Amino acid sequence: MRYLSCAVAALALAACAPTVPDSGAGVGFDRLDQQRLQRDAVLEGRDVTTVPGPIDVQATPLDADGQPAPGAAQAANTPADQIAADANSGVVPLQASPSNPAPPVVTNAAGISGENDFAAVSDQRDIQADAALIARNRAQYQVIAPTDLPTRPGTNQPNIVEYALRTTNDVGTPLYRRGFTSESRYQRACAGYASSDLAQEAFLARGGPERDRLGLDPDGDGFACGWNPAPFRAVRGS
């Protein structure tokens, strides 16, 4: 009876012992990878039952010189090679090898200036020729002195540029005595001219700046309708 009780106890302990996992079955990463692929397929709108297979890698045997072995050219004509050729505009990729001929060395391509090449420039001219060219340029150099402004032919209108350069007072500085002129009369008189330059010409032609028959210079500064001589004076001073 005692032996029977021991056997029953041993069987009970064996039933309660944890099951040792099979190390050959992995630790669950395959399942996680499968779940990740299914999740990516759902996000991309693909069929979750379709899982892309591994990429087929093709190997090409080489000889002792690193070149494809005889008969390997046909084997290398794989879809991967076709994709590479299409991506290269149909041009077969260059196979690098020590046996390939060296590329030609271009010393000076056509159309590129050689002015930085001392040997090329020396063949075209020398120091004596440059000195003679400089001497000819200096002999032809002329200094033109400024002259007075020419009188415009065919018109008796005053020259407002000459008047601006001849005067020195600022706009608003009274120099001449004027009678009383209302603001409205002044605005109406100036409105009859398209610009202040034309108003100044008319003002000078009718006795200005000493007299103001048209009412264009009520403050007596010699400048009609706000005409400003400063731009003309600035050109002379530059």
In total, how many beta strands?
0
Radius of gyration: 51 Å
- Strand-residue fraction? under 5%
**Main sheet specs:** none
Q: Strand-and-helix sequence, N→C?
A: HHHHHHHHHH
Q: Which spans have pLDDT < 50 for at least 5 consecutive residues? A: none
Average pLDDT figure: 75
| Measured distance between first and last alpha carbons | 132 Å
Shape: elongated
Helix content: 40-55%
The secondary-structure class comes to mainly alpha
How many helical stretches?
Answer: 10
Q: Could you describe the 3D structure shown?
A:
With 238 residues, the protein is an all-alpha fold. It has a domain at 160-237. It contains 10 helices and no strands. The longest helix is centred in the N-terminal third of the chain and has 16 residues, at 29-44. The radius of gyration is 51 Å and the shape is elongated. The termini are far apart.
Q: Top keywords for this entry?
A:
238 residues; 10 helices; 42% helix; mainly alpha
Q: What is the fold's blueprint, element by element?
A:
Elements: H1 2-16, H2 29-44, H3 72-76, H4 79-87, H5 118-124, H6 127-140, H7 160-166, H8 183-190, H9 196-205, H10 230-237
Brief summary:
This protein is an all-alpha fold and 238 residues long.
